[in-house]
Amino acid sequence: MTATHTTPQTQAADGALDFCLRLARAQAVLVRRLDNTLGNLHGISFSDFQLLYHLNRAPGARLRRVDVAERLALTASGVTRALLPLEKIGLVSRQPDPRDARVGYAAITEAGQTLLRHAVTTAHMISQELLKDTAPEQLDVLAAILGQIAGMNLANT
User: Between residues 153 and 117, which one has the greater pLDDT?
Assistant: First the structure.
């Protein structure tokens, strides 16, 4: 049997891989928990929640479809698939740009804002429960690391 020789580089690589594997598992647990609870209480998925949340935070409570794609890490067709059911139930509407017919906006409706207010309370409760043993300064460091991985900056958070 050959002995493995670990170098600082292999230890760093192993640590990075371990972090990514744990992150993927944590993400799956988080999404499953939020999907189930938001679905049962509010009739929306966590993906729907994220879309409504970003629309609501945007200036004028609307975003260009390309900006929705950027914030949610979706393709153009993924944005269309995400918006259609929300449009059908009146939580989101389409708005054309009066100056450029090629640009379309997705806007959260009043009904969407009402539902989102209730869903945010639920999401806060679940988030606090999942992270109850984590110090605020740890959350700040983790948020910075996750933002770095996701390519996020203050303009697109």
Answer: 117
